[in-house]
Each structure stands twice: as structure tokens, then as C-alpha cells.
Amino acid sequence: MLSWREGSSRLLYAVDEAARRLGLKPGLTLAHARARVPGLVVAEADPAGDAAALKTLALWAHRHYSPVVQVDGSDGLWIEVTGAAHLKQGEEALVQDLIGRLSARRLSAHVALAATPGAAHALARYGGRRWLVLPPDQGALGRALAPLPLPALRLAPETITGLHRLGLASIGALEAAPRAPMALRFGASIAERLDQAHGRRDEPLTPVLPRESIQAALPLAEPVLTAEALATLITRLVEDLCRGLEKRALGARRLDLLLTRVDGSLQALRIGTARSVRDTGHLTRLMVRQIEQIEPGFGIEQARLVASLAEPLQASQQQGLAGEMVAGKADLSPLIDRLANRPGIRRLYRLAPVESEVPERSLARLPALAAPTEESWPAALPRPARLLPRPEPVETMALLPDQPPVFFSWRGKRRRVKRADGPERIFGEWWLDDAEWFAVRDYFCVEDEEGRRFWLFRNGDGADEATGSMRWFLHGFFS
Amino acid sequence: MAQRREEVVDALRERLRQIERGGRPRAGVLPFGLAALDGHLPDGGLALGALHEVGGAGEGSDDGALPALFIAGLLARRPGIVLWCLPPAHPGGTTTPHAPLFAPGIAQAGLHPDRVIYVEAEEEAVRLAAMEEGLGHGGLAGVVGELPRLAMTAGRRLQLAAEATASLAFVLLRAKPALMDKEITRPTAATTRWRIAPLPSPAVLDTPAAPGQPGIGLARARWRVELLRCRGAEPQVWEMEACDAQGRLALPAALADGPAAAAARIRRALTG
Predict the structure, then answer these.
(1) 8 Å CB contact between A436 and A459
(2) Each residue of B81-90: pLDDT tens digit?
(3) What is the mean pLDDT of residues B71-91?
(4) Fewer C-beta within 10 Å: chain A N or C terminus?
(5) What pLDDT does B93 receive?
(6) Residues A137 and A219 reside in one and the same domain
């Protein structure tokens, strides 16, 4: 628990989860809190230190998520994910990734992804959910904002008190109230905040930039509007940037294009590469492919290209060798970069064996360009070409407890088993997970009358109920 | 005289093919390693620098396990990396499970996991674009795309992309049986089109443990490999034994001496 001094009294500045459960809230006087909960552990608040830490966190988010990150007040960050979410396989995946990484650093966070900074600010703090991703349509935005309380709008405390006195308690009520009298009484801030949250007025973010990043900027004599002009602009910026990279013997792993529109708002684009690259052609192509994501509005008046992540070039990536045959193998990294930066592609990976008997756990994803593992799965154990994401229960008739079924029905069709092979006994990995829902699976390959081969298993060893439910499941298809 | 005539016809045929390829030299072929198949196909194997369409038959056509094994077996015998473009395991919006590829099963057709890069994309258009991207690279062993259908224009684009870099492209059709029957009979831009169906194991091998019980033990699976369409060759059906661990198909043992010998054996057996 942290406290700080305001005037003559000491107030609570921040409280931890345990204190929150005891009903303590920031803003309470320390004396009051001590009276309610004896034995409080209190430390002096350090707003300056907090601000510095938040700035560090902003730079970290800039590195991992988006070219445009801005500190929001004393307790938040805005991350502009437009044009950057595809690198994390979509918005929802990005939000989960963010929460996961933060909690790995012992930071708990509330995350909201919405169409405007104002709405994201409101929903993260007052949305009542650990995280949410709002669909991009205007209706959803309005519906999500309507029930939120007034402090969510970033209004001055006096304004909020005044509005409460008028009986207005939610954004929806405020939205429905007549504008002119409000403006007369409280100033223009209410209308401005409402419009910003609903996306009727732009709220440009001012991104934090890591110091010492290599960048290239071009002042533009006239606003740029067309895709062709943007492509030329990108080409020139990339050439500039690559010269800068060359001076320091670096290659880019990530490039951010920051475009300032005539109306002052910011458009950003981010591309990533699997290995450090300094090939102007390759980098330009990657960027130009994303041009359609830029909304130029009335024109772009400033352009800046930042190598937000730069690394020494790998030997095989030197200018001139890229794209040629390296050590007898065609260089795949340009292809992988093009695919990784293409919107709509969810994942790009290789698979490698993992030591696990449980079939669905016997493989792991690797980055597409990871070094070859030289390992495969045991060839002697038959494995189907297609595996159901979840085993599906089947109705069976088995004459003997430890024999394959004579019939089984799956998705309404009854099949006679003509031939079968098995069982292959697989033991559940109870030591990995308390909730491992089986102790033993007995797998059979069976062939029906038409020659189609299925992979069935019985949950349990056929004799001891403790090893499983003895129910049958279909898990995969050999044909 | 007859000899000369045949030579002239062969030369003309070759000239025609070259015109079809737009004057580009022949990209070569990937032989199946089986005289029955290679002898039937023009140039003695599956054409490189071309698009090939492979679908399943019957109720398994939705899962496309056999086409996947057929393609994996072919690519197992080519050097290099394979790009396999597929839908995510749980496509958004639907609840029907969509059995995804199981790499250990594919490895058993000879395609080592180190050699396959998977690309997951929900939209067909993105998968098609990823395939084109892969074909444009030109240094891959092959590019595979799992699609519910292949429109004429999309097929034409892939065929051209494959021709341009002499790459091998496969479209693996996955559709419900009724749709599959429709998809697999309509005109295609692909160079060849195949349909792979399972065949029951021969009855002689059935040795049930007890009457009414299933037979014990499974022999190498049997496939009905059907060439539905091929430029420069007639449609044909073969009965084959499934890919082995090196991706090779085989003629069933009973037919190994050729259909005539098998027929003779059967006649002998019948006349006793």
C-alpha cells in the first residue's frame, strides 16, 4: 500500500489486491484506513518513479507491439495496433499475448481494444473485464460506452460533480442530454471528450520513440495522396534508412512507417522480418504491399521511417547474397517475411516432435526458419494423416472387453469393423496436469466395409474402471 | 515407313507441348517410379512446373486424409522445403470440427517434419495468395493448398505461377461428398486432376479371432488412384498399395506380374 501527502492529510495513493478486498480505496485518508484495518503496511508513494517506470513500459510495448505507443495519464498506455496487429496474428491474440507477457513480469493489467483512444481508456478502466476486444463497428462502440460512469470520459472532477448534481451518471445519459446548455455551463470539454470517445473527433497520439533508433524522414512539399506517390515516398525513405543502417553495419528486423496526415492524425505501419535485412528491394516490397492499409485522408504531409529494431547482419544476409543460393539452399527468408507480413495469415510455423506419448501433445510449433531438428516421430507406430481437434465419442458394440469393437456409430452412421489392428496402449501424463482426464488409452486402427481406416481408442484398459471410463472415441482418419 | 511415321508424330506431339508451354523448355517430371503410372503419363511422370488437383471420394472427402498422403508421398521424393497452406484447426464462426493435418501421419508417407512450413489462413483468398507467393520463390520442393474449391481463374493463376518458376503446385480439395462430386467434375485449369479413394483389404486376409469378430491385423492400405484429367493422356484408374515410408506407391502383390498373369491365376483357380 502506498500513501502520499496532500495538504495536511495523508491519503492512500495506491492499494494492492489484498487491501482492495478489505474495502480500502485510493483517496481514503491514511488515518481512516489505519482505523479500519490495523497493521497496514504503508510505503511512501513515488509518482516520479512511477512515471519513469511507465515510460520504460511504453518503450517495451513499442518494441513488442506497435510503432505508436503513448503514455496515458499516470496509470495507462495507449497502443495503436492498426497496421501492427497482423504481426501478432490478430487483435485478440495480441491482447492475450500482452496480458501474458505483463503477468510474466508480475504486472496485472486491464486491457481494452477499441476504435478510439478515448473508448479504450474508458473500457480498460471501467469496462469491468480483465480484457476485451471491441468489434470495429460504430454501434458496438456506442453500446459499450453507454453504461460506463462519467469518470471514464476523462473529465475534470468538478465537472463530474456538477453533472452528478444534474442527475447524469452515465455516458449514455450524457450523450442523450442536450449539448448547448451543457457547453454553456461546463465548457466545451464535455462535447470534446464525448466526440473523441465515439470517434467523431480525432485524437492523435504522440508516440514515444526509443532514443538512438535509426530513422529517415522526408519533408513533403505537397501532401501525398495516391498509392503510387506513397510507394515512391517509401522507396526513398527505405534507401535513406538503409544508408544509415550501413554506416552502423546493422540490418533491420523491424521497420515502422509513421505518416502525419494534414489533419494532424497519425497513420502507422509496421513490418517485421525473420532475420536482419538491409536489402532495399526486399524492405521496400514488404512495405509497399501494405500501402492499402494506409488511409491518407486529405493527404500525408510528413513521413518518417524508423528502424525500431536493428541487429547486426547475419553472414548469409549481406547485400548481394540475399535471394541467391546460400550453401546449396535457396534463401527462404524473403519468402517467409512476405508471408509473415501479409494480413490474413494466422500462423506460420514448422512442427517438430516432442517427447510425449499423448498423440495430440507429441508435436510443437517452431519458427518457420528454425534450424532443422533432424527428428521425426517413431515410424513403427501408425499415426493418422488427420487428427480431430478433440476426440469424438462413438457408440460401439465390443464383444470382449479388450477387443476392438465389432460396430461403431459416428455422426449417425453405423459402421461394421471388418479388420482391426491394436491395441497400442498410451498412458496419460498425470504428472503434467492434475486434470489429465485419462489414465490409459488403448488405440486401435480399424477398417470399415468400404476400406476406410479410422483411429479409435478406448478410455481405460478394458478391465479396471480406475483407468478410464471405458468409453470409445474417434480420434483420427488414416483415409 | 511405319517407323518414320511414328517418329514424325512424336516430334509433332513434342512441338505441340512446347507451344502449350509457351515456348519454355520442359520443366521435367517427377516419376512415380511405377511403370504402370509413369508409362501412362506424358513424359513419364508428374509434370513439374504445373498445378495438380487432388481430391478424395466418398464420405472421407471432407477430411482429405488420402489426398494429403498421396501428395506427401510425392513431395517426399523431391528435395527442399514444402509450403503447406491450410485452414486453422478451429475456423471462426463454425463449430464443426475440421480435422487438421496431423504431422506424424504425414511423416509416415516420407515427408520429414523439418521439410514442411505450414501457413494457416482462414480465408481461401489468403491461402491462394500464399500459394502464389510460394510458387514465385521458385526454390521450394512444392506448394500445397487445402481448399474447398478451385475456381477457374484461381487455378489458372496458380498454373501460370507454377509454370513461371518450374515449381510443383498441388491443390488438395476438401469438400463434403456431394460438393466434392461437383467440384471434381467441373472444368479445371490444373494440368492433372486425381481422385484417391480407399479400397477394402482383400477378403483372403480376413482371419477373425472368433466368428463375427473383426479380422486381426491390417496390411498395407489399398487405394483406388484415379487420373480424372490430364493434358495429353486418357483418364485411367489404378489399384495401388498406399505410400510406404519413402512415399512410394506400389502395385498390389497379386497384380505385380501384370493383370494378365493375375487373370490367368484366377482362371486356373476357377477351372481347378
Answers:
(1) no
(2) 999 999 987 6
(3) 90
(4) N
(5) 44
(6) no
Q: Which of A342, A346, A362, A414 to mutate to test the interface with B (most CBs of B within 10 A)?
A: A346
- Cα–Cα–Cα angle for B223, B229, B230, nearest 5°? 105
pLDDT, position A382: 92
Which residue's entry shows cell 509518482? A47
Read off the C-alpha cell for A348.
Answer: 506460420
**A268 closest CA partner among A72, A69, A64, A61:** A69
Give the nearest partner residue to B113 out of A351, A388, A421, using CB atoms: A351
Task: Say whether both A466 and A400 belong to one domain.
Answer: yes
* Complex ipTM > 0.90: no
Q: Which residue in B has a C-alpha nearest to residue A333's C-alpha?
A: B137
Q: Is residue A71 part of a domain?
A: no
Q: What are the residue ranges in chain A where pLDDT is below 70?
A: 1, 3-8, 211, 314-330, 399-401, 430-438
**All domains in chain B, ordered by first residue:** 27-200+219-271 (3.40.50.300)
Query: Residues near A205 by Cβ (< 8 Å), separated by ≥ 6?
Result: A68, A69, A70, A78, A80, A117, A266
Same domain for A246 and A299, yes or no, is yes
Q: Judge whether A222 lies within some domain.
A: yes
Together in a domain, A327 and A257: yes
Domain that holds residue A446: 386-477
Q: Which residues of chain B make contact with A343, given a CB cutoff of 8 A? A: 126
Q: Is residue A377 part of a domain?
A: no
> pTM for the complete prediction?
0.73
Nearest to A339 among B119, B209, B214 (CB): B119
Q: Is residue A287 packed enough to be buried (19+ CB in 10 Å), middle (13-18) or exposed (0-12)? A: buried
